[in-house]
């Protein structure tokens, strides 16, 4: 089962273009191309479902759409470069005992080209285009000045469900004066507790991005005073994308966190991810 979340007119254009590109590249039948293109509106996958295909589009912009794709181990992801320039798809280093980026990959994708990869290992995958972002391991990649989507970075997540993946029972996250969540990636078990501690000098609002399917399946919002802590227990399996509302805002086109101009650390968004695996 694939759960769909529309992003309005822009996403419909991407989906149609994705179907055309898949067909022109000879990836499966027209029916399979259409099915793969529909997953470009991002999504969910049910455990135990048969292997399926998912499309991630690079439109005429420095962005991956969708930002978060949910799939099962054994599924195939196809990146479609609809841009006029070359992009590189590169995973960040493996961390958290192999729970983050358990498989490494690097794909160089020329203009108008498509490339696929089958993900056989469950886990959380974070990838980015190293030509259009600056990566550091203390937070999400930052958009390079002059990038067309600036300040939204060209990065993305694959949340891969399946056996053999486990997280921690509890995690402490620091909100720092440098406008970072440390650590910014957390993989926990269902029933696990995350505690955020605010080390800044002002109250901070931890706000979840809009939810659909297994992406932000339950609302996440809390205000944490300076020097204070707040905890949440995550009982619902899914991937949670959150940000500090005083330091980042939702981009109106792509509906994902973007750094506010003038914030410390700009253009790196003050964003965090909690991935809960069954």
Describe this structure in words.
The chain has 278 residues and is mainly beta. The protein has two domains: 2-161, Immunoglobulin-like (Sandwich); 168-276, Sandwich (Immunoglobulin-like). It has two helices and 22 strands. Strands 13, 14, 15, 16, 17, 18, 19 and 22 form an eight-stranded mixed beta sheet that branches. The protein has a five-stranded mixed beta sheet with strand order 4-12-9-6-7, with no helix packed on it. Strand 20 (248-250) and strand 21 (257-259) form a beta hairpin. Helix 1 (9-24) packs antiparallel against helix 2. The chain starts with a strand and ends with a strand.
List its salient traits.
278 residues; mainly beta; Immunoglobulin-like; 2 domains; eight-stranded mixed beta sheet; five-stranded mixed beta sheet; 22 strands; disordered N terminus
């Amino acid at each position: 089962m694939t759960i769909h979340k529309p992003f309005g007119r822009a996403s419909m254009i991407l989906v149609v273009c994705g179907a055309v590109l898949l067909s022109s590249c000879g990836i499966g039948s027209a029916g399979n191309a259409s099915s793969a293109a529909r997953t470009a509106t991002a999504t969910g996958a049910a455990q135990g479902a048969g292997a399926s295909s998912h499309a991630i589009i690079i439109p005429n912009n420095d962005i991956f759409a969708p930002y978060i794709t949910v799939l099962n181990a054994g599924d195939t992801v196809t990146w479609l470069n609809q841009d006029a320039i070359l992009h590189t798809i590169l995973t960040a280093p493996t961390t958290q005992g192999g729970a983050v980026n358990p498989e490494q990959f690097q794909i160089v994708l020329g203009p108008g080209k498509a490339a696929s990869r089958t993900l056989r290992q469950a886990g959380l995958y974070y990838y980015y285009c190293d030509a259009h972002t600056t990566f550091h391991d203390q937070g999400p990649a930052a958009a390079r000045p002059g990038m067309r989507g600036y300040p939204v970075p060209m990065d993305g997540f694959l949340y891969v469900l399946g056996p053999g993946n486990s997280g921690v029972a509890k995690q402490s996250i620091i909100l720092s004066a440098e406008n970072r969540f440390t650590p910014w990636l957390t993989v926990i078990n269902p029933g696990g507790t995350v505690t955020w501690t605010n080390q800044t000098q002002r109250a901070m609002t931890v706000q979840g991005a809009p939810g659909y399917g297994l992406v932000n399946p339950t609302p996440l919002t809390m205000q944490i005073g300076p020097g204070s802590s707040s905890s949440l227990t995550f009982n619902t399996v899914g991937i949670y994308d959150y940000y500090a509302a005083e330091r980042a805002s939702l981009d109106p086109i792509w509906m994902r966190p973007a750094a506010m101009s003038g914030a410390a650390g700009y253009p790196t968004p003050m964003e965090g991810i909690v991935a809960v695996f069954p």
